[in-house]
Design goal:
The protein has 14 helices and no strands. It has 396 residues and is mostly helical.
């Protein structure tokens, strides 16, 4: 586990500026895929985020109006409650429509984004020098880009979800600040340790996945050797199945053990830190209830506190949930953009590229192709030595 995390340290400690630039590029790439759908998602995101705070504030005003009328003994016409009730229902209806529309449009935008990003990956591969295809590190980058291209759309999704929850949270904390200026700090302070722990374990899990890329290519290669028609005769002839299956088992077992260790540690910390928000919420409820009994606060303030705290808790949980996926996707998106930014000729043995604007040379296909004094041999290794011994034993 320690080896995996040390290998992934440069990616984990990428500068904030570098990560923010990756977010901006992912968002811009999503916008390029379909500007109209992107704008619709942006508008529905803002509308969804403002719904809960507005509903909480309208509910407080209605409760305070009814409470004041009851305390004065005056008869309050029911028509006076009609505008706030209509506003409450209208905001709720707009938020429901916006949320449903955003989900449908985001799914469609995701398909556009995935195909657009996949085209960029392929275009980059066609522009690379032939020498790069003999470089293992390049193949790891290309493998990540091909397999994880869908994470470009996921980054945009998670950013929009975090934005929705952040808009709601900031607005709700502003409402809670009217109760007491310390309340927002208590809410954030009691929840921040859980967010930090979740982010930490998510980074570790993503680091394991990133370092598994090379082993994944090896497993795919061995799987093809063991199961495809072109290779099955050779593997059976030299009895390579136990050796190859053993290497596959070792690689998969190490990956699963690392993931299991991280998951168990994450659940232990999550269970322990989940008690802090409950303690903070109970303390705030007790303070507001005491304020109502002392007539320093109104019944509407009490209702506002209950509703705003519950909505804040959901918003913070949503931020923690989507931020975890955002951190995980960030590893792969940064690596994908590193692949797209890689110079086409930055490899040993790269061909000299023609000058800009020059005409490509015309190939001369006349004459014969002659191979003279050409030889080939495999590099000596333990595997080839074992194969040679088995062949000698078979024909001996």
């Amino acid at each position: 586990m320690r080896r995996l995390l040390v290998m992934a340290k440069p990616s984990q400690r990428a500068s904030v500026r570098h990560i923010l630039r990756a977010y901006w590029r992912a968002t811009r790439l999503t916008y390029e895929a379909s500007p109209g759908l992107f704008i619709v998602v942006l508008i529905t995101t803002v509308l969804t985020g403002l719904a809960a705070p507005l509903q909480a504030w309208i509910a407080k005003l209605m409760i305070d109006s009814v409470t004041a009328a009851l305390a004065s003994g005056e008869v309050m016409p029911w028509q006076t409650l009609l505008p706030p009730i209509l506003a409450f229902v209208g905001i709720w209806g707009v938020s429901q429509v916006a949320e449903s529309l955003a989900q449908s449009v985001r799914n469609l935008l995701g398909e556009y984004t995935m195909y657009h990003a996949n085209l960029r990956v392929i275009q980059k591969a066609t522009a690379m020098d032939p020498a790069c295809f003999d470089d293992a590190k390049f193949y790891d980058q290309l493998n990540v880009a091909n397999r994880q291209v869908w994470r470009i759309a996921n980054v945009t999704y998670e950013l929009s979800d975090v934005t929705v929850q952040a808009i709601a949270l900031v607005s709700l904390l502003g409402l809670l600040a009217t109760i007491h200026w310390l309340v927002p700090f208590v809410v954030i302070g009691m929840t921040m340790p859980k967010l930090i722990a979740k982010s930490r374990f998510t980074r570790q899990r993503a680091a394991v996945w990133m370092n598994y890329t090379g082993n994944r290519r090896m497993i795919d290669y061995m799987s093809a050797i063991l199961s495809e028609r072109e290779h099955v005769k050779e593997t059976r002839l030299f009895r390579l199945e136990p050796h190859l299956l053993g290497k596959m088992r070792v690689a998969v077992r190490a990956f699963l053990q690392d993931n299991r260790r991280i998951d168990l540690a994450s659940e232990r910390w999550n269970a322990a830190l989940s008690l802090l928000p409950l303690i903070g919420t109970a303390g705030i409820w007790l303070y507001v209830a005491a304020g109502v009994l002392a007539r320093r606060l109104t019944v509407g303030d009490l209702a506002l506190t209950f509703q705003a705290l519950e909505s804040s808790r959901r918003a913070l949980d949503g931020i923690a949930y989507h931020s975890a996926f955002l951190v995980e996707n960030t590893f792969f998106v940064v690596e994908l953009f590193n692949y797209l930014d890689r110079p086409a000729s930055d490899f040993a043995g790269a061909l000299r590229r023609p000058a800009p604007g020059s005409a490509p040379p015309k190939p001369n296909l006349r004459g014969a192709i002659v191979f003279d004094n050409v030889s080939f041999r495999y590099l000596a290794s333990r595997l080839t030595k074992n194969v040679t011994e088995r062949v000698s034993a078979t024909h001996g």
